[in-house]
Amino acid sequence: xxxxxxxxLTLGAAAALSGAVGxxxxxxxxxxxKALAFDAFAVFDPNPIYHACEQAFPGRGTELANLWRTxxxxxxxxRALAGQYADFWRTTREALQFAAQSLKLTLAPSAADTLMNxxxxxxxxxxxxxxxxxxxxxxxxxxxxSNATPTILAAGLRNSHIEELFEHVISTDxxxxxxxxxxxxxxxxxxxxxxxxxxxxxxxxxWDAAGxxxxxxxxxxxxxxxxxxxxxxxxxxxxxxxxxDLVKFLTNPPPVRPS
Length: 259
Hints:
By secondary structure, the chain is α/β, with parallel strands linked by helices. It has ten helices and ten strands. An eight-stranded mixed β-sheet has the order 2-1-10-9-8-3-6-7, sandwiched between helices.
């Protein structure tokens, strides 16, 4: 499953800008962003995991990867709703087994281990280190806020040599739930010690951007997939294909509406 590089930048719920970001909204009562909370996949590139599916099952890998990823989140949401929590690692492995069985692919335990261990080998997207360094230079606090387990998050930071850029690593495993449960987004305000209006949430998936907006975070959608916007209003406050676009968006820190 290869992500495209198409970029769409937006500011506010209705404006679509081409090549220009950072325009200042004039509404009174907005506040500056003090911290940013990132979904893990806005920072770490998952594509090698899905490319490995093609290596394991030539000609069927993309099909397997797509079904695996879809069922992965479905299992997490279903378990959270039903009060039957299992962590990211377990639900992801169960989703992989389901996907392989559905496609009538023989997945040996060793092959499943190899694919799963891809989550412990995650590395940052190429644009990430410079973008995060610039955000830190601007004096902003950075945090990860992810459904992934603490072990997966720590491995990704270590593999990417960016541990020192994040002051906080927050896993929804702490409260045995998954985004978009509002309690998971609340972890960001509790750990950072800030009002939600002062924390910009950086989402990788459109549904996560919607969940963060519903919670009350100002939100930037890191739409590396060039995906269509979800029909889940309100829209993200900004969007772009890379964290370089995020830095541009915050060059003149855009005010955000208090909830």
